[in-house]
Amino acid sequence: MSEPKVVYESPSTLIINKPSGLLTHPRNEHDKRESVASWLAKNYPGAVWAHRLDKDTSGILLIAKTPEALAYYRELFHDRKIQKQYIALVYGTMKNETGIIDAPLFKFGTRQSMRPPREGNTLERAALTEYKVVKQFDDYAIMEVRPKTGRTHQIRIHLRSIGHPIVCDPIYAEKSRVCPVELGRLFLHAQKLIFTTPEGQAMTLEADLPPELENFLKTL
Predict the structure, then answer these.
(1) Which one of the listed residues 31, 54, 56, 138 is annotated catalytic?
(2) Residues 6 or more apart from 5 whose CB is under 8 A from it?
């Protein structure tokens, strides 16, 4: 598996480009799979991710190298002062070129849904996602997606809720949706991150689409 690539580094901050298939952190102490956490332990002891990406999502990930930086970035995320932009390829023809999905997610156990379960303890959390269609193909649409909150699987659940799940999503796309063999991975990429470092430097960092995503788009 490919290792993360360092995009930016300062005394407080590390920005990496995470490859698809790499966990941000293991599920539990018995999970011995490679992860960003294990990579950090080897290369940047003491550094901790300030947010997370799904295993199959590639792209920009913000790492805090000090406890003070971690507290700072967590506050920025809480106050929605960090802007995130993703690129997603979804199934179908979009009716609207832009839109806002404002729908809470219900967390129960390790899963989240837009529908609360009938039984058990749940936690309802606000979730807001903006999107813009970049290009419409015959059977797919490429989109810029900006989550304003950071719920687990938020983009994937929200896009599924409007009838356009992400291509090759093994959890939220219906079984009738074909995952193209030549793609073979979730088409979701964390493209851009806009924030201010603890040192006061305004940053806009981007990660190009991985070759497998670029190559698939060329076939459409």
Answers:
(1) 54
(2) 16, 17
* Fold classification of 5-217 (topology level): Pseudouridine synthase (3.30.2350)
Q: Return the SS3 of 76.
A: helix
What stretches in the chain show pLDDT beneath 50?
Answer: 110, 116
Over the stretch 31-69, which tens digit does the pLDDT of each residue have? Answer: 778 899 999 999 999 999 999 999 999 999 999 999 999
* pLDDT for res 116: 47
Whether 112 and 105 have beta carbons less than 8 Å apart is answered as: yes
- Which pTM was predicted? 0.91
What residue spans of the chain are helical by DSSP H?
Answer: 36-43, 67-78, 154-161, 211-217
88 phi, psi to nearest 5 deg: -135, 145
Specify whether the CB–CB gap between 53 and 24 falls below 8 A: yes
Domain-wise residue ranges, the chain: 5-217
What tokens does 94 get? Answer: 């979009």
Sign of CA dihedral 214, 211, 100, 94: positive
- The count of residues in the chain is 220
Is residue 54 part of the annotated active site? The answer reads yes
- pLDDT given for residue 214 in this prediction: 96
- Give the single-character DSSP code of 23: B
Cβ–Cβ < 8 Å for 20, 7: no
The answer to whether 147 touches 131, Cβ cutoff 8 Å, is: no
| In contact, 13 and 58? CB cutoff 8 Å | no
